[in-house]
C-alpha cells in the first residue's frame, strides 16, 4: 500500500485554498453583495459598521494572503482569532451553546481550520514554501 503521508502537503494546500476561497466569498458578499445577492449584500454594504467593515476587509485580503500562501501562519492566526471572536459575539451570545442551532458551525470550522494552518503552515503551492527555497 502506498504511503499516504507523501500526499500530506498537497492535501494541506487543497484545504488552505478551498478555505481561503470560501472566506473571500464571505468577505466580498458583506462588502459588495457579490456573489450572493440578497444575503446581506447588494445595498446593505452601506450599512456596515466600522468593525464589520474591518472584519470584511480582513476576510478578503487575509483570504487572498492565505490563498496564495503568503505569510500564512500569522495571517491564519489573526483570522482564527477573528472567527473565534465572531462566533462568541454573534452566534454564541444569548443563543444555544451548540453550534448547529445557533448557526455558528461554519464560523467554528473557519476558526479551527485557520488555527490548524497557523500551526502547520501553508503546505505545497505557496509563496511561503517558495521563499524558503530561496
From TrEMBL:
Keywords: Cell membrane, Membrane, Plasmid, Transmembrane, Transmembrane helix
Annotated InterPro entries: DoxX, DoxX-like_oxidoreductase
Spans traversing the lipid bilayer: 60-87, 107-127
Cellular-component GO terms for this entry: plasma membrane
Location within or outside the cell: Cell membrane
Membrane topology per record: Multi-pass membrane protein
Pfam families noted in UniProt: DoxX (PF07681)
Source organism superkingdom: Bacteria
Family that this chain belongs to: Belongs to the DoxX family.
Protein's UniProt name: DoxX family protein
